[in-house]
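Q: Give me the 3D complex with LCLUPRNS.
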Amino acid sequence: MPAVSISIDGPTASGKTTLATRLAEELGLAFLDTGVTYRSLAYALDHVPIERLRTDLGSLLVHQPEIHRRHGKKGICQNHAILFRGEDITQEIWHASLDANLKSIAQDQACRREILRLHQNIVEKYDGIVAVGRDVAVTLLPHASLHVYLTASETMRRERRRAQYRTHKDRSTSVGPATERDLQNRDAIRAMPNALEVDSTYSPASAVFAAALHGLRRHSS
Ligand SMILES: Nc1ncnc2c1ncn2[C@@H]1O[C@H](COP(=O)(O)OP(=O)(O)OP(=O)(O)O)[C@@H](O)[C@H]1O
Ligand SMILES: Nc1ccn([C@H]2C[C@H](O)[C@@H](COP(=O)(O)O)O2)c(=O)n1
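A: Here is the predicted complex, encoded as structure tokens.
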């Protein structure tokens, strides 16, 4: 288990990635977006049958997470990269046409187990990590220093996603209500002693960051 680890969960476009990258930059941690792996498998599903993804994931996919190292006032950031059979698919995984595949992958328990194994190997490699995604608090980082559950109203999340992708016409802007899985994860996180729930609907990203940092200090002392 790394020295400092933070899990961040919450529904689509609640601001998980924004918070996680800021925390990683400020604290000099690695950053793992588990949703990126799910999106990569959705891409892969157009090329190989799901049975192969369940058994050969480790040899098909390389997920290189971002590393953030604080350097004076400027963080040094090495962007994440996703390789599928050696080909860089980092940009392709966001395409809206992958939405149906994404659902199939997220519902496949054998795939979820393989993805978890892949993420566990990544976590082992780093001395500190911020990991983002549905269920990371429960499955990947149950002993994290802090578990953040981030919410925002559906209307606000939809507005943010549309604004974010205004110049990316091929990207998915589908934002729905919190799913059953989102609500189960939220309840599991609420029951954890070192959890922090933040509603970002009317809070700017800087206020969400300050709340998370405060939570980390409180639970680490
Ligand atoms: N607190 C905030 N206030 C206003 N805008 C925000 C806030 N947090 C994030 N945003 C903006 O909302 C958009 C979505 O944020 P982000 O990508 O971090 O969400 P996410 O939860 O990681 O999404 P996904 O579930 O797809 O991974 C971005 O354009 C980001 O700049
Ligand atoms: N740990 C995870 C991460 C992601 N998913 C699913 C949920 C979404 O449909 C998709 C993409 O995630 P996002 O980029 O929106 O965070 O992958 C999951 O089931 N478990």
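A quick observation: The pocket of LCLUPRNS (ligand 2) is lined by residues 12, 34-35, 38-39, 102, 106, 133-136 (CB under 6 Å).
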